[in-house]
Amino acid sequence: MYLNAMIIPHLVYCITSWSQSIKTVRKPLESLYKSALKIHDKKPRRYHHCQILNKYEILNFENLIKHSNVCLLFKIIHNAAAPPLKRYVTLCSEKSTRTTRSVTRGKCSVPQRKTVFGKSSCFCIAMTQWNTLPTDIISCRSPHTFSHLAKRWLLSGQECTHL
Fold it and tell me: In angstroms, rounded to a whole number, what is the distance separating the alpha carbons of residues 28 and 36?
């Protein structure tokens, strides 16, 4: 409970801003996250963190970023976020008059960007991650249920590949 109440909110507070940065910038934050997990479970520093993630069903660092991104996008799409953010997100159903799978599924229209910096914007990344979600999660209307289903889906694909 302490980890979820005191540590995770501090990391998640501006996650959509700093998650755009390169991996070397995020590395100290990821290290801090892993250390917090080990302290939470009272394990030594050399203990492998993936076992703690599995034990408590906690998202790894990359999935924590994905979860934050799709939850923000959910709020934007359902008008629960600041109204100016809505102009950066376009659903396929708002763009096209034809009925296609992407329109009926609730997919986002990801804008084409020419530069790597443009492709790394929060909205491009979040929309790409949104489009990978299953239809039953996208069609959810409750923010709490959406967050829970998205976390479950991310946890189901989370594997430890470096043991």
Answer: 12
